[in-house]
Structure formats: structure tokens, C-alpha cells
Amino acid sequence: MQNHPTTVERGDKFRDAIAAILRTKYPDVLTEVRKGSKKVDIVFSRNEFGRRITFGVECKDYSRPLTKDNLLAIYSDYGPLVESKLLDHVLIVASKDISADPRAYVDSVRWLSFQTDRQLEADLLGLREYIEILGELFNEDELESYYVEARLVGQSQSASSYIENWLYDSKPSPLAIMGGYGKGKTSFAKRLVSTQARRYLADPTERMPVLIRLGQVVHETQLEGLFGKEFTSRQPATDFRFRTLEHLNQMGRLLIVLDGFDEMKHAMSAADFRSNFREFNRLIQKNSKILILGRPNAIPTEARDLVFRGIRGFGVNSQVVDPTFRQWTEVEIDFFNESEITQFLRNYLKHLATTNETIPSEEFVDQRLREIRQEVSEDLLRRPVHAKIVAELASDPTFDLRGFTQHTLYAQFMRRLIERDVEEKQARRDIGVADRLKFQKELAWWCWTKSGDGQGFFDRDQVPRALLDGLPDGKSIDPETKLAEYLVSTLTEEKDAGILFFAHRSFQEFLVAERAREWTPSAEQHVQLANALTVDIREFLEAGPDRQYLDRWHETLGASAGPLSTEYLRYFAADTALTAKILRIPAVRMSAADVAIIGLRRTPAAQNQVSNEELISTLAEILSEGDEDAATMAIVCLIRLRYEDGSLDAVRALVLGLIVRVIQRMKSSEGVEKGIFIPTSLYGTPERVCAAALKKTNEENTGRAVSIDLAEALRIASKHLTIDIGLIARDANDGVAGRVGQEFTNPPAHAALFGAPPIPVNRLVEAIPDKTLGDSVRRLLRLYGARMEVIEFKERGRSYEASPKRRFNFGSSSR
Question: Which residues are in the NACHT domain (predicted)?
Fold first, then answer.
């Protein structure tokens, strides 16, 4: 039998709830306080203009609204307390609002006021004006007039219906809405919070919406700082306290929307990104509703598994649950389908017709719509941002829609916007379109790569004047007026005083890609370029007319000191013409970056350029003849081939390359029984690998053989590349060798392939066409002792000359 709470129990619970929310702002809140002859439900105080005001709170959780008689009774109870100055003011808090007559009575009493519990919450949070602004957000730029309802992948209902069901579901599971660039995530976020704001303003029992744009978060931050900055400097709020927001979130009174986790990720380290997600997880409470939006390709799969699923990779093929991260429900915004494309284009063209007198009639809209569907690929129109750009261009009756690609779409759109800026104002015509477009590329690049605040917005006063170097002055009289003239553009919008945003993130990404396409970076600038190339910027680069920019980038890549991500090096490796060009470079002249590029190529087209056997022979040549850095990279790449293909030839090449290297560098072939002595000037990481990882054995069937500890070889080589020279970027939270081992080798499911059986000496020597060199290898490996005694010694004047002939031939692939 269910026990229902008594009237007293219900009243106490209501009183305690009011005391709890008041306590988030007023620490001296007390309940059941004796004042004269009256036991007051709640008492607290606050300062008002230098005077301490004491409040008494009367809590009424009645099933019906309070009447005027109820209020008269309260007046009788509290009047004497106010007259005797035991209280200064009395607040009545009830669960039901009062009608006009009781309200008029309360207003007539100087020391009396009334609020519902929901009104009190909103008053304490101080976001009423902010929520009213959110209510109009969906109609910003008349978005409401052309918006087409978003859908989620695999869902028959609209995204809005899905979110509404989630919002009223009692389960607290946080929700992550994924979507690539231009799929309408931010528009959907605006629609969501705007709809919820209107609901709340009509019914205070609904959740209050809060929207945080994460693009402005660029460092590790705590929730207190994140929300504090939002509601003390960016948004209208009255005496905001994070403790109040935190309490209301726990009580299920808020809908918190975090938009743009991908923009946050671009500007910070992986460690800071994970730390911020731990902070976001603090918002996930029993009654909370937390929603986050962003691009799924912004973070690697392993990082996504961790922050959204609470799963951390462990070892080669294992996973563990990380209790410091929570599991989010993940859904993805779908592309437009055919009917949605048509609906959006029609809506937006009609919207443009109402604001643009150059669009002659509705018949023109219908005609242009037919031309768009005939001339423009449906795949290009499936992203809302693309469809919007096409409609903008099509609204000009003179614009030719034929021959559209993603690149020409953005290129034409940018040019048209700037031409429109110039044509509309006579004073702007002294500065041409090309110069204005050049400035926009430089501005986008600077904003994308600058340190500090997020890359999507910038302070007008912080724009470097150097961006204007070489650009015409027009009619400007000083640098400030010149900057103002170039900043005037419909590509950027001013949201706050002096703070400018690019109108759409993809506009900035296209401009960044175009600036990078035209650039020849110095050796030192490759780190900046590598950090700038997100997945979407690479997509814009690849959509361009050619890939000649890669040749220019490669000219200085070899001299870069790093740290470079392997993702950046893989971008070079994906270009078959470039990898073929690198393969023609003599082994002794290859840089470590060159070796990484040819060793990382895994696309089918790249593999067709060179066989595994030829690649293995090339890597063995580099290992035996190249400089220390290139040879060390060759070690890692050969181990990677063993991981990916199970190739024993890769292991054979690794062993043979190490042995030939030390033979060429040793002091003399005489007296090697005591050790292989190598001068300090020629002794480096490959020689250390040879000494630490190689072992001579005697096998029953094959006789003398050599084995190699691949894990130890990888550990030594990885340390050199990531720590000693810092060429390859690594995650500071991961092990020394782990990051490079993972990035380069991509271990298969069967970890046993990581090892390799001992290789007979005869099997090694048969890959060396030169008989003299082969005999030297055979003689060295038949010496007594299990280890390769490679010893460093100091000697002046020792030099080494590379062999002009190819030393190795791995003509068959053994597995």
C-alpha cells in the first residue's frame, strides 16, 4: 500500500526546496526560525545599498491559488514582526500563481511581495532578459521563414520531435548531435533553444534554455569560468551565480545546449580537450538535460570513444571503461533528401525575393529552381549551407549555373559577395575585388591560427596591421581607416561591439584553404600549417583544380624540425605523384619526412605506384645509408609494414639494413671479435637499435640465425623521433613509444604478428647482390656471442661515403 505524504510533510518538502535554491545565493538561509511569537518558514538577509535587509519567507504549497483572505491572514501574522523590526520584508512563495485581486493587494503593502517557486528560480538565476533574447533567436536574419526541419540519420521523425521526446523523458542520458560542416547544426540549435525559450516564457514550469557557444573556449576551463564569463560579459544577466545554475540543473529546471565542440577542439591540446569534457560531465545529473553539437570528424576515433562513450583503448586490441567520462547518446543530422532540397531552395529564393528587388517575380523563382535542379549536382545541394549559397548565386538573373563544383561554388560566392560590397558603395571602388579577397584570405588565416581566443571570431583592434602590407590604400588617410575599409565585408558580421565573426564557419575554412593553397611555407612554418589543416580544410583543398601546392609545401618540408603529426605526413603520402617523385630521390639524400611519406602510403592508388618489395628495398637502402633521422624513420616504417602486412621481408630488410649500416661505419673489419667499434660521429639511434634489439642464435635446422626484438627497436626509434629530435608530434599523456607505435604501425588484431621468427644468415645474405658485402655480413654474424657488440668510440677525421649502387633486392614477399 502506497503511503501519501501528509499536508505537513508536503509543506516541509516545499519549504526545504525553496530554502535550498535561496541558499545558492544567500549563505545565511535558516528554516523554522522563531521571530517573536511566529515561527517563520525561512529567514535570510542581503545587503541593499549599505543596509542589511532581513527577509522572512512564507511558503505555501496549496493545490489551489492563494486567495485574498489567505493573504490577509499572512499580513496579520507578519505585520507585528515588521513593525517591531524583527523583519524588514516578507516574501510569499507559492506553487500556484495568484489572480489579479490578490496581486493588487500584495502590491499595496510596502513590505510584502509574492512569487511562485518558478518565478523565484528565474529571479535568482537572473536570466529572464537573456531567455527573452533566445526566444527571438530563430527569427534572427528571418531564419524562420526558410528553415526546413532537420532529420536525424535512422529516424523517421523530425529532429525536433526526437529532441522533444528526449526532453520529456525521465532518463538523464546526455545527447550529442553530430553533423559535418554545413549540415545545419547551429541553425538547429537556434531553433531548439528559441522554441524552448518561448515555451518557458509561456509556461514557467518548462525548462529554462541556456546556449553556450564552445568556439569561444580555447583553453582548459572550469564550468564556473565558462558560465561566469558567458553571463557576466557576453550576455545580459542580473547578479548571476554559478551555484544557482548548478542547483537548478540538478533539479531538472534547465536545458543546457553546448554548440560547437569541434571549434573548441581546434584551438586546444588533446589534454585540454579531454579535461573540458570532464568538466562538461559535471553537468550530467539525475534530472539534467545536456545537449552538445559538433562535427564528428573533429576528433580521432579513440578520443571520440573516450569522451562520448567512456571507453579507453588499452593495449593492442583491448578496451576498458573510464569512469571519469560519461556515455552520451549519439545521433547525427542527416543530409537533405531530394524533396527537402527543393523545399529549401524554394523557401530561400522566396525569402530573397522579399528582400531583393532584383528578383523580378515568382515565375523567376520557379524557373531558377528548375535550372538549379538541372545544372547543379544533387550531392552538392545536400548540405544546407551549399544549397543556400547556390540560391544566393541563382538570385542574380545573370549568373550562369553550369559547371558547378564545391570549389567553384565557394570561389564564385566569395567573389560575388565582395563584388556586391564594392558596387554598392562608390567610395569602395578604389580598392579592387582581388585585393579585398586577398585580405580576406589573410584575415581568415590569421584568425584561424592565432593563439588565445577561438579561431571563429576576432577583436577588430587585435587585427595585425601587417595583413595590409602591399595592399592599396584606396582613399584611406591612415592605417586605422585603411583597416576599417578592408574589414567592411559581408563575409564577416559584428555580433558584439568590436567583435567580428565569419558569417559561416565554412566560409572561413574555404578562405584558409585558398590561402594555404597559394602558400610556400618556410621550414619553421610547417608546424603551423600542420595544425591548421583540419579534415574540412583538407576537403576544400582536395576539391580545388590541382594539387601543385603539395609540391611547393614539400620543397621545405624536409628541413622542418617539427613536431609534425603523422596525419599531416599522411596528407602528403596520399598524393601518388608526390610519392613517386620522392621515391626517385637517392636514399642518402632523403629526409626523415620523405621516409615517413613513402612509408605511410596506404591508399590503393599509392600502393600501385610501388610494390611492397620495392618499398622494402628502398627502406633498407635508407636504413643502411641515410642520415640518423631518416634511417630511424625507416626502422619505424619497416616495423609498420610487419604490423600491417605480416611481411617477413620487412623484418629481413630491417635486420639486414642495421647490420650493413654498422659494417660500413665500423673502424676496421679486423678484431671484430672484441666488438664493432663505430666513431662517435657515425654512431646514432640505428646503431643503438642494432646493439639492443638484435640477437644471434643457432637454430637446429638452419644453423646461424638472427632475431630482433621489434618492440625494443620501436621503443628506441620512437623515442628518437618524438623526444630526442621532436620531429613527430605525440600526445603528452601517452607513453614514449606508444603514440608513434600506434600512429605508424596500426597493430592488427593478432598481436602475435608483432614478433618474428629468427632469420637464417643465408636468407639474409641472398638479398645482397654484392658478394663482397654479403661475405662481410656472413663473417660478422658467425662471430661468437649472442649480442651485436656495437661500441661507440671517439675518433677524429673519420668520414663515410654512401655506395652509388643499390645494395638490396627483396624480390619476393614472405609472410
Answer: 175-351
Order of strands across the sheet that contains 254-259? 208-213, 254-259, 289-294, 175-178, 329-332
Q: Which residues pair with 158 in a beta bridge?
A: 151
**How far apart (Å, rounded) are the C-alpha atoms in residues 724 and 710?**
20
Instruction: Look up the domain containing 198 and give its range.
Output: 128-332
Q: Are residues 620 and 682 in the same domain?
A: yes
Phi, psi torsion values for 632, nearest 5 degrees: -65, -40
Which helix (H) or strand (E) segment holds residue 408: the answer is helix 406-424
Same-domain check for residues 592 and 695 = yes
| 378 and 362 within one domain | yes
Rg (CA), the chain: 35
Other CB atoms closer than 10 Å to residue 752's CB: what's the count?
A: 7
Contacts for 443-450 with beta carbons within 8 Å, 24 or more apart? Answer: 443/467, 443/486, 443/487, 443/492, 443/511, 444/502, 444/507, 444/508, 444/511, 444/512, 444/515, 445/511, 445/512, 445/515, 445/516, 445/532, 447/502, 447/508, 448/508, 448/512, 448/532, 449/528, 449/531, 449/532
Q: Cα–Cα distance between 690 and 370 in angstroms, integer?
A: 69
DSSP letter for each residue of 54-115: EEEEEEE--SS---HHHHHHHHHHHHHHHHTTS-SEEEEEESS---HHHHHHHHHSTTEEEE
Q: Which CATH number characterizes residue 27's domain?
A: 3.40.1350.10
- Judge if 168 and 72 occupy the same domain: no
Identity of residue 552: R
Tell the residue number behind the cell numbers 535587509, with chain if given. 53
Cα 800 from Cα 68, distance rounded (Å): 103
Closest CA to 600 of 623, 582, 587: 582
Residue 594's identity, in one-letter code, is D
pLDDT in tens, 235-292: 777 788 999 999 999 999 999 999 988 777 555 566 777 888 888 999 999 999 999 9
Q: Give Dmax over CA atoms of the chain in angstroms.
A: 115
Q: Is 574 within 8 Å of 603 (Cβ atoms)?
A: yes
Phi/psi of residue 458, nearest 5 degrees: -155, 155
Residue range 781-797, pLDDT digits in tens: 877 666 777 777 777 65
Question: Which letter does DSSP use for residue 151 in this model?
Answer: B
The helix/strand/coil state of 328 is coil
